[in-house]
Amino acid sequence: MKLQEQQVKDLATGAAFLATGGGGDPYLSLLCAQQSIKQYQPADLISINDLPDDAVIVAVGSVGAPTTSLELLPSIDDPVIAIKAFEQHMGVKVDAVVSFEIGGANSLIPIVAAAASGIPVIDGDGMGRALPEVQMMTYSIAGISPTPSVAVDYAGNCVVFDDVTVMEYEEQIRDFAMQRGGMVTTVEFCMTAAELRGCIVPNTVSLAIEIGEVLRVERGNAVELIERLRVVFEPTAYGDIVTLFTGTVTDVATSVIGGYDIGYATLRSDKKDEEDIKVDIKNEYLTVWAGDSLRVCVPDLITFLDSETGQPINSERLGFGQRVTIVGIGCPSHFRTSKALDVVGPRCFGFDFDFTPIEALTPQ
Amino acid sequence: MRIGIDVGGTHTDAALLSGNQVVETCKVLTTSDVMSGILDVLTQLQSQCSETVVADAIMIGTTQFTNAVIERRSLKPVAAIRLGAPSGKGLPPFVGWPEDIANTVCAAVYELEGGYLYDGQELSPLNEVELKKVIEDLKRRNVEAVAITSAFSPMNSSPEQWVKERVQQALPHCRITLSHEIGRVGLLERENAAILNASLLHFADDVITALEMALKNSQHNCPVFISQNDGTLMDVSFARRFPALTFASGPTNSLRGAAKLTGLDEAIVIDIGGTTTDFGVLRGGFPRESNLVVEVGGVRTNFRMPDILAIGLGGGSLVAPDGSLVGPQSVGHQLVNEGLVFGGSTLTASDIAVAAGQVSMGDASNVSGLDNEIVSKALEQIQTMLNAGVRKMNPGKNPLPVVLVGGGAAIVPDSLSAGFEVLRPEYCDVANAIGAAIAQIGGEAERFVSYQTTERETAIEQVRSEAINKAVAAGADMKTIRVNDIEEVAIPYMDNGSTRVRVKVIGDVAALQSPDTKEAAR
């Protein structure tokens, strides 16, 4: 499928929906993708099954503090510069690119690369949502190393990272980003199509486009919207979609600890006799509590929609008095294994309880 | 004495205040040239007063500049100069604008080296040779308006100043807007705001000059102020430079007016017009601001606007024959011709209010035959719509008082859902003119700081004094300035202590020699 400007616009909205409050505002990445398509060509979206087992694939995206790119704007050539530098360093030819995470801004960086270079982009990603750390990616969980990798800064300077553990890499790449204005573009997780096939959350790019289309067409119509989305999620690796709550934000208390925006939000229901809702936040929305009872927890998806427009709300933009609808979705089956839950379950975010699926906590 | 004037789409309202007391109010129809409507309302106001009115200051809220952008008229082509290369390649100025307004406004774009990084390091050095070429091009194209934006200029504006000096020297008649003077962090949105502002500068000159001439020839030879988005005022010389800061002054003024009329700092305000009803919330006497990105005429900006919920309900709303549905269609300002009580043939919300005896308007006998059941059904529907809005906007557990303002306030029944006290203050139909009249002057500054290198108190003090300087430059009385708001936002994925600090201060109008100002100054 060739992705044109309207599709990437829908993709950005769908990516914000799947970002569960985190992932950064996709607006700048969207502009980059639109401009790249305008200037070069539509991006070629392919299925992982279209590639031979030995095809070479890299994940491409941005790393750093998204707030800084509000001023230090990204360039549409950065992803291509990074891919070329990677090819040169490794002596390989990249056959396709893939996204780290479909949730938020990073869903669009591979599209920028694909449009500018003609290399196809694979329909799928390594998270199926947004999550804060590199070991939480399905690629990492499957044992694929993020390095060797290449990072490029705003001035086009490239640096290679190699011979480090996953945790060392995470630290080094963040330091590098901070020294170079706050955001860098990276090429990581060099893998074969056979390896990726074993761990990709499939078809999430086309899913995000479909979600974005529903949110565009049904704008301002929250009830219809959920019914339409139910149909969209039906054939995917995700579970059911449930409307959990409609009400008003009464308090948002977050502070940045260790680089993460940590805290909680409280909400009051539109229905008089319903209990108050509390939502824990660490960049992403992690839990929903109705009074003392847990209704959803990470890695199942929690999305806030603006009740008037039906548009997703990033946790950074969540504020006192906002009218919101909270939606829960069963996470992709990839995260329901015990091996995956060891790195993405509630305990990994500091909670002292184990994961319970949304379908058990909030039966429809 | 001061006079507040609100120029709306249908009516131009005025309120005369002595100190803090409302003395007289009136309404006239808005004229297409706006100016004669303003003179009309002043004449009308005088005719209602027994003594000669001499104002010490006139405050005007106007939607002229917003409408110019929305209707894409009276806009000058602008050359946009950005300092931030090599970053942002492929995202030139005007990126993401609707095509029609980009075609109207874009004269040329230049992406030069310059600007800073978040940590205060240079992004790239300024390039004199590059700029000389740009200036030659500006001359060749006969450019009359320029917007200059550099990366992180809210923290360090020197690159913008550097370019301005050189452009102004080479093109003395060119009008220039610097982005750091008008917008916040967020380069594209700030650049958009600067471009829109630059494109309005010539129109602003025309409007302000006409206004000054008209008032000079009237009995009111006094300072004139214009309402801004945030409920504060700017003097006319400031308004000539920053017309874009008026974009959302309408709803802001009606919220501020409601605060003044009731003395409440925390309340839900319902402003009911002919076609729509706006719900807003007062916090600390000022409108609660929206967290969402604000588009003006389809252009993304980062102006702070009040958080408004609008629904299709007003005095002119159409009512279904059985009373089960009210709005969103409306006869609008044709109410005075089409409503039943005015001899027309359309059943409107106002007719229901008259039939229910809530208000007298037109000829009540025209609706005496209306079935009681239809009337009570329609009233119930109006109540349901308002209750839903009030409940959505009420921020906490406890119901806030509800203040009704605007020309359509009469259609609201006396009570809303349990617990919400409904206030219908005197003069509520001209609340926005009163909001304009009582406004003060503000100043705002913003910076990225690291609390690890600069102590928190010191950092806030630096931003505060910058905000105070801006307020004084805008016409505030130094002695009355106080801090209105401090916002500290920690930045995710950065070292602990990296924070965006924004300070807003507010003070009385220095030029206003009214008793309350003197008192405050004492």
Structure description:
The complex is a heterodimer of chains A (364) and B (522). Chain A is an alpha+beta fold. Helices cover 30% and strands 28% of the residues of chain A. Chain A contains 11 helices and 16 strands. In chain A, strands 1, 2, 3, 4, 5, 6, 7, 8 and 9 form a 9-stranded mixed beta sheet that branches. In chain A, strands 14-13-12-11-10-16-15 form a 7-stranded antiparallel beta sheet. In chain A, helix 1 crosses helix 8 (204-217), helix 3 crosses helix 4 (109-117) and helix 8 (204-217) packs antiparallel against helix 9. Chain A starts with a strand and ends with a helix. In chain B, helix 8 (249-262) crosses helix 12 (431-438) and helix 10 packs across helix 11 (372-393). In chain B, the strands form 5 sheets. A 9-stranded mixed beta sheet of chain B has the order 3-2-1-4-9-10-21-23-22, with helices on both faces. In chain B, strands 11, 12, 13, 16, 19 and 20 form a 6-stranded mixed beta sheet that branches. A 4-stranded parallel beta sheet of chain B has the order 6-5-7-8, with helices on both faces. Chain B has 522 residues and is an alpha/beta fold. In chain B, strand 17 and strand 18 (326-330) form a beta hairpin. Chain B has 4 domains: 2-69 and 206-262, Nucleotidyltransferase, domain 5; 70-205, 3-Layer(aba) Sandwich (Rossmann fold), CATH 3.40.50; 263-402; 439-521. Chain B contains 14 helices and 23 strands. At the A-B interface, helix 2, strand 10 and strand 11 of A face helix 11 of B.
What CATH architecture of the largest domain in chain A would you give? 3-Layer(aba) Sandwich
Q: Count the helices of chain B. How many?
A: 14
Which residues of chain B form runs of ≥5 with pLDDT under 50? 514-522
Q: Strand pairing plus helix content of chain A: what structural class?
A: alpha+beta
Low-confidence spans of chain A: pLDDT under 50, at least 5 residues? none
Order of helices and strands of chain A: EHHEEHEHEHEEHEHEHHEEEEEEEHH
Which chains make the largest contact?
A: A-B, 51 and 45 residues
Helix content estimate of chain B: 25-40%
In round numbers, the mean pLDDT of chain A is 92
Give the tally of β-strands of chain A: 16
Number of helices of chain A: 11
- Gross morphology of chain A is globular
Class by helix and strand content of chain B? Answer: alpha/beta
Q: Any idea what the radius of gyration of chain B is?
A: 25 Å
How many domains of chain B?
4
Strand content of chain A: 25-35%
How would you sum up the global shape of chain B?
globular
Oligomer: heterodimer
- Compute the number of strand runs of chain B: 23
From the N-terminal CA to the C-terminal CA of chain A, the straight-line distance is 35 Å
